[in-house]
Design goal:
By secondary structure, the protein is mostly helical. It has one domain (6-70). Helices cover 87% and strands 0% of the residues. It has two helices and no strands. The longest helix is centred in the last third of the chain and has 33 residues, at 38-70. The termini are close together.
């Protein structure tokens, strides 16, 4: 289930980064069309820009804690 080598881990992390690279432009496009007025659009883009790194940090911490407890 988990990568057993450094190469496997790097490949899995690269695929995760590729998924984010594919999804981010779509998220920005949906945000741009959903909020036509400037004050609301600015807040939405700020929340999106904050959510990406925050979600990555929390996901990495929870993944590490889960892996530490399981194995």
């Amino acid at each position: 289930m988990y990568p057993q080598s450094l190469v496997g881990l790097c490949i899995v992390r690269a695929l995760a980064g590729l998924g984010l690279a594919v999804a981010s432009p779509a998220a920005f496009g949906i945000t741009a069309t959903s909020f036509p007025t400037n004050p609301h659009r600015t807040i939405a883009f700020s929340a999106l820009a904050l959510g990406n790194p925050l979600g990555t940090m929390v996901g990495t911490l929870l993944g590490g804690a889960t892996a530490g407890l399981g194995g």
